Amino acid sequence: MSERIRQAFGGTRRPGLVTYLMGGDPDLAASLDLALACARGGADLIELGMPFSDPIADGPVIQRASERALKSGTTVAGVLELAAQLRRQRPDLPLALMGYLNPVLAMGLDPFLARCAEAGVDAVILPDLPVEESAELRGLARKRGVGTVFLIAPTSTPARAQAALDASTAFAYFVSVTGVTGARAALPEETAARLDALRRPSGPPVVVGFGVSTPEQVQALGAHADGVVVGSAIVSRIAEPGTPAERAARVEAFVRSLRTP
Q: Given 25, 44, 47, 226, which residue is catalytic?
């Protein structure tokens, strides 16, 4: 686990706030400004999406963001350069890349992870890579000093959840709802109990995401998790009309509101 990740989730005063945005939505230059806006708003870790034409884990909001990013010409290499630019401006800010396996395989696992290390990426999240098939990725990531993150679903068996915890060297990602990403008015009542059962002193930090969209949800889930991920609610605000400055100000204000008790 990198020291930046440790700092993001190691505090006792509050859970880490993870903010997701799609790299290249609406373009790479704007994504840099928006990521910095998230950081100014109080984000503890920035999660950058890598656009893909078939994002099976994502709902309509992030699917449309992926389409906009691809239309602007964004590639995995472009998101890696975005991460490098962000790292140069914010050396202290933890960064994770989230995307799908096919574009990564097209670049090559080791070249991709080597470029992650060069760009200062702390962790990678590939939702469509099962733990059982991840040995090569985990070995190469360990060699490059890049953390791995695996997802745990509400339907995961205890054995599968433990395998994901064991394979996650940065943090584990608990999916709060069955289905795809997207803001939800309410989250399942059993989420808190599942999070409490997953967190162990000897295990990785556990963050929770999918469906989280309000300060009240962040506060409620944060009492049971090391970190909370907000994605679609941010991406939907990026999609609203306005100048680049208005868009960044809107995102910064929303992220700051998530810290409001």
A: 47
